[in-house]
TrEMBL record, chain A:
Family as reported in the entry's similarity comment: Belongs to the RNase PH family.
Domain of life: Eukaryota
Database matches in InterPro entries: ExoRNase_PH_dom1 (IPR001247), ExoRNase_PH_dom2 (IPR015847), ExoRNase_PH_dom2_sf (IPR036345), Exosome_comp_Rrp42_subfam (IPR050590), PNPase/RNase_PH_dom_sf (IPR027408), Ribosomal_Su5_D2-typ_SF (IPR020568)
Protein name as it appears in the record: Ribosomal RNA-processing protein 42
Key words of the record: Cytoplasm, Exosome, Ribonucleoprotein, Ribosomal protein
Main location: cytoplasm
TrEMBL record, chain B:
Domain of life the protein comes from: Eukaryota
Entry's Gene Ontology BP terms: CUT catabolic process; exonucleolytic trimming to generate mature 3'-end of 5.8S rRNA from tricistronic rRNA transcript (SSU-rRNA, 5.8S rRNA, LSU-rRNA); nuclear mRNA surveillance; nuclear polyadenylation-dependent rRNA catabolic process; poly(A)-dependent snoRNA 3'-end processing; TRAMP-dependent tRNA surveillance pathway; U4 snRNA 3'-end processing
Any Pfam family the entry gives: S1_RRP4
GO molecular function: RNA binding
Compartmental location: Nucleus
GO cellular component entries: cytoplasmic exosome (RNase complex); nuclear exosome (RNase complex)
Biological source species: Dimargaris cristalligena
InterPro entries assigned to the protein according to its UniProt record, in alphabetical order: Exosome_cplx_N_dom, Exosome_RNA_bind1/RRP40/RRP4, KH_dom_type_1, KH_dom_type_1_sf, NA-bd_OB-fold, S1_domain, S1_RRP4
Family: Belongs to the RRP4 family.
SUPFAM superfamilies associated with the record: Eukaryotic type KH-domain (KH-domain type I) (SSF54791), Nucleic acid-binding proteins (SSF50249), Ribosomal L27 protein-like (SSF110324)
Magnesium found in the keyword field: no
Keyword tags: Exosome, Nucleus, RNA-binding, rRNA processing
Protein name per UniProt: S1 motif domain-containing protein
Length: 277, 297
């Protein structure tokens, strides 16, 4: 539900005091996620899609489209491409005017771009069809339909599920000339399509919010207003930390970092086995 | 990977179906946009419907209402339309000349005039220019107020007042937002739930759940009307507030009208569950079933 993005001093005090005694305003423990719904294959014309809704608040829809692209001179000759775009629907909250929404869109797009491109996640080399010539390009488009806090975690959950759901058509490669020149045909049969190579290595995020000398996960919208700083940790299925991003104006004491970085995705989220093997 | 390991493919559809199933048991008929209501030509189409090939079809997601031969659909998530005398909970969004603008979950912001508030200490006098200069000490942006609708403007905008000790700034609790259609007009909208929790049911769907404060203590201390500081709250009071708040969320998720009896029944039914589970689909439907059974008996 759209809100004004405002909070009263009494509410801030109530929520922050709640952190100190470990009772949150909605009765959760400090390290407890809200119930979430995950739907797969929600957009029929995409190569893969998913929608994740957490606690009847934040709602993210992700569509993945796979297309053939040319490898231009100067680009890495043997890698596919992933292009991300995140857009927040202006109806989500009243306080995101066009400029604030633009900034947020950029921030989230950058975050997603780094998560999908800058480490051993999706196997980009397997997305190459013919080196120096053609490759697959994955358009990952996310739409934030509703906001109720904890956008980063929900976004990555939806993206990972959409990649799990994505199928890339098989290609048939032929050598056409004596000089090693190659051509390829895309096989249209959907039965022949393959999963995204390395989708399982895409991480999930756990955002730890620092407030009132303690930290908690999965902040609701009101709780985000009461948070001093946020630490987003992305973890892959081997339990390795892939990225850490600190946001917010407050400081997190150095001595709590090691403790905060012990996040375990399965424990925090309770992820279904199929999505987190 | 076998299909058995896959997460539910259509949890959204399933959840929706479950909710419809739970609510069509009574006389209310829930419809979605495009759903045929009746093909009987004796009926006239009203608000929220249209006719296609002789069939009356819903244009909204809501409840079908029949008044004689007129068929209308009342939207479930419509914005709040006020009436004079309604008790509402609102949030101050901005200050203007001699008035505050208030978010009332309505189509447009409500107005709280400087002349429609009580001064701290209950002083009776006309508001002066110095009062205008310290308006932020009464209500600032973000503050929550409980108020009564004083009048309505021609375009449907709402003017509210807080000229009673019952009304004023809210403290010691948490706000729950539900569809306004679920709150019905009643004799009182201020309830003290026996577990030591106060509930203010704003007709605009904003519900304030807070720890119990003796009304006499407020009257004895009129200076505190505009305080921003919470009273000390014990862990027990805090858990009770959270439980009542989640009971209200659970009831609204199951489309049950929110009133004191429903809240008390839901509270009793909820005691065997952990607080945070109350808002899940499975537990909330279980609680809803118990509440419905008790309300009918």
């Amino acid at each position: 539900m759209a809100t004004t993005g405002l909070i009263s001093p009494a509410e801030i005090n109530y929520i922050r005091e709640g952190f100190a005694v470990g009772i949150r305003a909605d009765g959760r423990a400090l390290r407890q996620y809200r119930e979430y719904l995950l739907g797969l294959d929600v957009i029929s014309h995409s190569s893969g899609s998913a929608r994740c809704r957490i606690g009847f608040g934040t709602d993210v829809l992700v569509g993945v489209k796979v297309e053939v692209s040319n490898i231009e001179p100067g680009e890495v000759p043997n890698r596919g491409k992933v292009v991300c775009n995140v857009e927040c629907s202006p109806s989500t909250t009243q306080n995101w005017d066009s400029r604030a929404a633009d900034e947020l869109n950029n921030e989230l797009t950058q975050f997603l771009h780094r998560c999908l491109n800058d480490y051993d996640g999706i196997d980009l080399e397997k997305l190459c069809i013919i080196p120096n010539q053609s490759c697959w390009i994955l358009y990952v488009d996310a739409l934030v339909l509703d906001f109720g806090g904890n956008l980063y975690d929900t976004l990555l959950m939806a993206v990972r599920a959409a990649l799990f759901n994505t199928r890339i058509p098989k290609v048939h490669i032929e050598e056409t000339g004596d000089d090693g020149e190659k051509e390829f045909d895309v096989i249209d049969d959907p039965e022949e399509a393959e999963p995204v190579p390395g989708w399982a290595d895409v991480p999930l995020a756990v955002t730890l919010n620092w407030a009132n000398q303690t930290y908690f996960v999965d902040a609701s919208e009101m709780e985000e207003h009461c948070t001093d700083a946020k630490l987003t940790v992305t973890v892959n299925k081997n339990g390795h930390i892939c990225a850490i991003q600190k946001s917010g104006l407050g400081a997190i004491p150095q001595k709590v970092y090691p403790e905060m970085l012990t996040v375990r995705i399965r424990q925090e989220w309770g992820v279904p086995l199929a999505l987190w093997p | 990977m076998s299909t058995a390991d896959l997460p539910d493919l259509a949890p959204f559809e399933q959840a929706a179906a479950k909710r419809t199933e739970a609510t069509t048991g009574g006389e209310t008929q829930l419809v979605t946009p495009g759903e045929p209501i009746t093909s009987n030509t004796a009926f006239m189409r009203g608000h929220g419907t249209y006719v296609e090939e002789g069939v009356v079809i819903s244009a909204l997601a809501g409840v079908v209402e029949r008044i004689n031969k007129l068929v209308t659909v009342r939207a479930l998530k419509a914005r709040y339309a006020g009436e004079i005398g309604d008790v509402v909970v609102g949030r101050i969004t901005s200050l203007a000349e001699k008035r505050w603008r208030v978010d009332l979950n309505s189509r447009q912001n409500g107005v709280l005039a400087l002349s429609s508030i009580n001064l701290p200490g209950g002083v009776q006098r006309r508001k002066s220019e110095s009062d205008e200069l310290r308006m932020r000490t009464f209500f600032a942006e973000g503050d929550l107020v409980v108020a009564e609708i004083q009048s309505l403007y021609g375009d449907g905008a709402i003017a509210i007042h807080t000229r009673s000790l019952k009304y004023g700034k809210l403290r010691n609790g948490t706000l729950v937002t539900i569809p306004p259609a679920l709150v019905q007009r009643s004799r009182t909208h201020f309830y003290a739930i026996p577990c030591g929790v106060d509930v203010i049911l704003g007709l605009n769907g904003y519900i304030w759940v807070s720890k119990h404060v003796d009304p006499q203590a407020i009257e004895a201390n009129p200076e505190e009307v505009y305080s921003n500081v919470n009273d000390p709250i014990t862990a027990e009071e805090r858990t009770n507030v959270a439980r009542v708040a989640n009971c209200i969320r659970a009831l609204s998720r199951q489309f049950i009208h929110i009133h004191d009896t429903a809240i008390v029944y839901a509270y009793e039914a909820s005691l065997r569950f952990p607080i945070s589970d109350l808002v899940t689909d499975s537990v909330s439907s279980e609680i809803a079933m118990e509440v419905r059974a008790k309300l009918q008996s």
